[in-house]
Amino acid sequence: MIYTEQHQELMRSVTRFVETEVDPHAEEWERDGIFPAHELFKKMGQQGLLGIDKPERFGGLGLDYTYELAFCEALGATKCASIGMAVGVQTDMATPALAKHGSDELRTEFLAPSIAGDYVACLGVSEVGAGSDVASLKTTARKDGDDYVINGGKMWTTNGTQADWICLLANTSDGQVHRNKSLICVPMKTKGVQIARKLDKMGMRASDTAQIYFDDVRVPQRYRIGEEGKGFTYQMEQFQIERLWGAAGHLVGMERAIAMTIEYTANRHAFGKSVLDNQVVHFKMAELQTKVEALRSLVYRAAAGYVAGQEVTQLASMAKLTAGRLAREVTDSCLQYWGGMGFMTESEISRMYRDSRLTSIGGGADEVMLTIICKGMGILPGQRANH
What we know:
Number of helices: 13
Protein name: Citronellyl-CoA dehydrogenase
Radius of gyration: 21 Å
CATH architecture of the largest domain: Up-down Bundle
Pfam families: Acyl-CoA_dh_1 (PF00441), Acyl-CoA_dh_M (PF02770), Acyl-CoA_dh_N (PF02771)
Keywords: FAD, Flavoprotein, Oxidoreductase
GO molecular function: acyl-CoA dehydrogenase activity; flavin adenine dinucleotide binding
Number of domains: 3
GO biological process, one term: fatty acid beta-oxidation using acyl-CoA dehydrogenase
């Protein structure tokens, strides 16, 4: 996959937006533990950045996913990775199923204002006892007349304290766990929706994360996305996009960490020469840059396959697994060469180190990615027994 001039122009626009609207506030938002989502998303919506690959009839640009990928990659240059994650929830985690499977009425009510930046969206999948194991979630949506009555709770919900609506995965029947779930759009101001607490995190601190309870929350059944019982399948589709986003979003950030470290070590002297002049340091920078380029190739290949309508679960899982591990390696290696300054909270490389840790957990832990990859290879224990 090769970016065209149109892709490059989009990336330049995103870079300008990041430099003027995000980076100047990075330290403040990090310190406050939250950023003004409605204010920032409205600015992004006005520039058409929240619906790049969404249908034009609902305010999107109607472009293919490679443009969304270019947007994601450019957004990764920000000094505040929390914002990239929060935006990704809005564009590539909470809304893809709605855009693809939702009724026109539902897309008018929830998707259009999300693309415009008037609504902030969040995704309700993980629970205290069901993180990567999505099939075991306990939240229920029981039919009562024309409504669903929802009970349960969600955990680690990005954008949760500011969201206008949640794309909620809940059990809508007592059937088989992969066929008893539905995705439902739930307005957060509905009676019975309670933000239990704002969570305190190790990293991604500028992004608000909530624990949410649902106590007899009543919403019309027309708020269901697509077919009843297809929620698990729809969410697996959303995960595929989320994992591509998670991988692409790290590329420029890792390159930034490498470039920062090269500059810092070139100007830092020890034992009569610059730290960068030590072979172990400049060889490490070359090795890390090579690995980032290899990941970029994997991400581009997966994205090209996705646009072509191919099944890319395997490649997306590999990209996400690699991104999580490489982001940890890059930030850890770079921080080491910053010495004591790297250990200071005020240091940007320190924030990168803390923020990078989430990628191997969120959107499916490394171990889940490995299981998916093994399944694709046909080497899980149960699969081998059938050969």
